[in-house]
Design brief:
By secondary structure, the chain is α/β, with parallel strands linked by helices. The protein has 6 helices and 7 strands; from the N terminus they run βαβαβαβαβαβαβ. The chain has helices at 13-23, 35-44, 60-74, 99-127, 148-168, 189-202, and strands at residues 3-7, 27-32, 50-54, 77-82, 130-137, 173-180, 207-209. The relative contact order is 0.15. The structure holds NADP nicotinamide-adenine-dinucleotide phosphate. NADP nicotinamide-adenine-dinucleotide phosphate (NAP) binds next to helix 1 and strand 5.
Length: 212
Amino acid sequence: MTTLAIVGAGEGLGAAVARRFGAEGFSVALLARRQDRLDKLVTDLKDVNSRGYAADVLNAEELAWALERAANDLGPIEVLQYSPLPQRQFLKPVLETTVEEAREAFEFSVAGPMTAVNQVLPGMRERGRGSILFVNGGSGARPNPKVGGTSIAFAGEGAYGQMLHETLGAEGVHVGQLIIPGAIEPDETAELAGKLWRMHCERGEFRVVHTR
Ligand SMILES: NC(=O)c1ccc[n+]([C@@H]2O[C@H](COP(=O)([O-])OP(=O)(O)OC[C@H]3O[C@@H](n4cnc5c(N)ncnc54)[C@H](OP(=O)(O)O)[C@@H]3O)[C@@H](O)[C@H]2O)c1
């Protein structure tokens, strides 16, 4: 069985992506901080073979361990999606963003992805296939002074992803980034999940921008 791991999975985009990949035969590992919410999500996703693993992306050990258990339980992780919903303190105007908040945003959006990638990439490279998909808001494409923390940190996440894209494409591992400007409306999650599915299948450019 082939597995999708969603790091930062909730009722919105996470659930829609789990349904989309689940319909294609993937098992789905759902990672987020709250086990009770993950358990509810697993129950809601009744047609998908899914399991929830509690982990905070700010805790590298916890994140790596959750991904290791997921692969042991469900099978090798062939698709990794990194999409935790940024915390409020990363969404403050640039002049109100403290150094500590910027540092934490870096941990959330750069160190977290690096930990997750380091955990799953050796297996992907061994098998010669896999996809790593980053999901970011509009400040991932263009810094927005209204959201200082994510603008600073998403720039690093995008640079990391772009470099991985250039380094790993020839080995069969696709790395992509979906940029979603503005708020996600509940009725567009299925469309966004379809985009992520196509990014995995078509292995095109690094960055895909969602337009409405
Ligand atoms: N929602 C929007 O309007 C919007 C707009 C543009 C882009 N995006 C992007 O879309 C993705 C999220 O989609 P969504 O909003 O529909 O979210 P979702 O899939 O409904 O849920 C994301 C989950 O991330 C988890 N999370 C937050 N902080 C975490 C942490 N420190 N460690 C582990 N998990 C964490 C939360 O669960 P716990 O609280 O249980 O940890 C949350 O349920 C993100 O990449 C975001 O940048 C969202």
